[in-house]
Each structure stands twice: as C-alpha cells, then as structure tokens.
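As a next step, we paired sequence with structure tokens, yielding the entry below.
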Amino acid sequence: MAAFEPVLTRNFAVENSQSLKVYEGRGGYQAAKKALTTMSPDELVQLVKDSELRGRGGAGFPTGLKWSFLPKDRAETFMCVNGDESEPATFNNRYLLERDPHQMIEGIIISCFATRASTAYLYNRFEYIAATRVMERAIAEARAAGYLGKNIFGSGFDLEIYVHRGAGAYICGEETGLIESLEGKRGWPRIKPPFPAVEGAFRKPTVVNNIETLCCVPHIVERGADWFKSIGTPKSYGPKLYTISGHVNKQVCVELPLGVTTRQLIEEHAGGVWKGRKAKAAVPGGISMGLLSADELDVPLDFEEIRKTGCLGLGTAAVTVIDDQTPIMDVLYNTCRFFAHESCGQCTPCREGTTWFYKTMKRIKAGGGRLEDLDVMEQLAKNLGITPGTTICGLADGAAWPIKNAMTKFRPELEEYIRSHQQADKKPTALQEAIFRGVSPSLFDSSLPEPSEPLPGPTAPGHNPRVSPGT
C-alpha cells in the first residue's frame, strides 16, 4: 500500500506555517477562489454530499446533509465554528489552529459561501489563549489581503469572521449550548426542535461545524469527491487527526486515513506502552465514547466498526492508553468526577445521576464499597439518557457509556477491587444497608437486624425508604 501523504497537516513542518505568505506560496486560497468564482452554493453543497464528509467533532453526522437542512427562503444565516475542544485528552483542533490557521479560514470561506452565511463565529475553548491569538492575527492578514470583507474574489460575496472565547465549560461543546454561550447567556443546551439549522444563533438559521471538518472542505474542492473517498474505509472517508496520550512513550497528534487501529497508533506512532508494560484498555475517542479492552485494540477506529465493540462511537479520535497496572476503578473514578463537575445541571437525570456516580465511586475508593454497588451503577448507566426526552443533550449518555463498558468488560476486576479495598470501619450500618436494599425501616427502631435476604433488585438513586410502594 502506498504511503499516506498528509493532507490537513501538510504545512505543519514548514517554517512559519501560520503566515499568509507561506500559505499562499503552497497553493492557499486557490480552492476558495475556485469555489466562489466557478461554482454555485448548491453545487458546493452537492460536492460535499458526494464526498460523504462526516463531522469530525464527535457524532460523525454527514456535513453536506447538515448544510442542506437550512431553509431555502432564509434571509440571513450564521456559521458557528466549534472550537470548544473540551473532551479530555483531545488536542487535534488546537494543532490545526496554531499551526495552519489559514487552512481553516479558507474552509470557513467556502463553507459560508455554500450555506449563504455572511457572518462566521469561531468559538474557541477558553484555555486556548495561544491558538486564539494566532487565529486573530491570521484573520487580520486574510482581511487585509481581501480574502475577508466585501466582494471576495469579485464574486459579490461578503464575509466576516469573529473569534469568541468561551468560559471553560465542557457543555458548550454541544452545539446549542455553544450558541447560548455565544449570545452571552449561560451555556445550557436548548430543547430541540427547533434545530439550529432553523433557529440557531440570535434566532437565525445557523450551521455549526467542527474545525477539522471545515479544514477538509478546501481539499475536497481542490481534488474532488472521488479523491476524498479514496482515503479511509467504507462510510468513513478521508483523513483524520488522531491524538494519542496516556500511558505511552510519546504523546502525539498524527494524521492518518480513517480506519487505523489503536494498536497501530500505540506501536507505530506513540513508541509503545510506557515502562515496558502492556495495554489493559484504551479510550477510543474521548472518555464519553467508552472503553476498549486489550482484545479490541485491532478494531478499526472509524465511524462504523468502533460501534461494534460497544463503544458509543469514534468521538474526537482522542486515544488514551491505560496500562496493565492501572486499576479500571481509578479510571472510572476520574471519569465520574469529571462528568459530575461538567454537567450543567439543567436536566434532573443527568444532574443527579452524574453526582450519584461520583459519590458512589468516592465511597468505593474510601473502602466503603459493596459488590451491590456495581449492580446499581450498571442499572443506572443503562437507563441514564437513553429514554428520548429525559435529557436535552447527550452528556448523560457520555457519562454512562464508560460505566456500561467497564461493567461488561472489566467486571471481575472491579469486584476484586471492592473486596481488596473494603475497610472494617467503613462497613455500612444496618440502617444504611436497609435503605440500600429498598427496605422501609422504621426510623424509631434502632435495633434493625442485619439483612440476610438477597438483594431483591437494584435501588434507584433518590429512592425514598419512607415512602411505601403505591403511596
């Protein structure tokens, strides 16, 4: 097989790759000129549809189809570029922003022309201070050169790009939470419908796309849909930036065709597992996607195959490697703590469920765990967020998925952890045990017997032992 030639990162090794002069010298903005002067917006939308480009931000939704949802009779359209890269261990968008900002600007120009948007907002993660400065400088260069502003390439198309920094909230990676934050409000996701394509930023039709997604667009315009589909695997076409971190010898961001395996990333690009150890598990695309076991490291990391392992999806393609000496319980503890902190609190199942997960994990870590805790956590994980209408966004699903995977793939290890870490002084009282088992104890009786019957069924978080069934 021929060696893969970088596409999105082809300018990274060039000195001063952030500058307009270097970008123009390597063919920059020629795709934008071609799109604006020789193609119509509808032709561009169809081209992106034909390429089967899928969103690189997490869900993998077809980009051209997303653009086609915009109302035909709209008077004004906005483009929101999602740079709120807050999924743990994800840093591919930051590389694109810092090292080749004009590539993204060109992608925005073409995408805005295709969607008839005259204003684009780049919503950057709060912590990306350097990336924001690089982007602002690049936007100023592009405006001075006539690539932004009025009548771009003499086409009659006008466009302005504005950079907006968030406040560090994970939830603002969700497109409607991002829009709320952009408008100066609390970053709470909106109830859908209406979807952003109908009513988004400032109540106008809005397209929200990920940075890496838009960076693919100039190359599709330049080389065509067939070229794009020659890279990757069926239904998962094109190049992809993978980030590899965790227990590896070299933490890197690499561009490869979609469909590379976790084992290839570890051995060929990350220098192997650190300290000569073996991989016990890996996160395939951000912790909200779940966990791969050691037996699943040869599964292709694309939009289709990864789901067959029980993971939620490819996500951001941020691979985190976990070595064979790290307890999975520690991984779950950090995961639950993260989601409990980042839940916006708007929806009761997510707010209470993520908090309950974290409190349970905290108790287990302190030596007060029970084997029954795993049953209750598994039941909650199966119910959290999967019933349509119970939560507004997908954070609840993301919080539950690592728990689901861990219970399925690492249950014996989790049980052994609880047994080996139990402490006598942390043993639950009779009252606590009765409440956990769903018994309705009398609060005036302090001489409750130790429960001896098997657990009748996992007790739901928030169960009130004072309320009898049927009341």
Q: What stands out?
A: The radius of gyration is 25 Å. The chain has three domains: 20-230, 236-325, 329-427. Confidence is low (pLDDT under 50) at residues 439-471. Residues 421 and 448 are 26 Å apart (CA to CA).
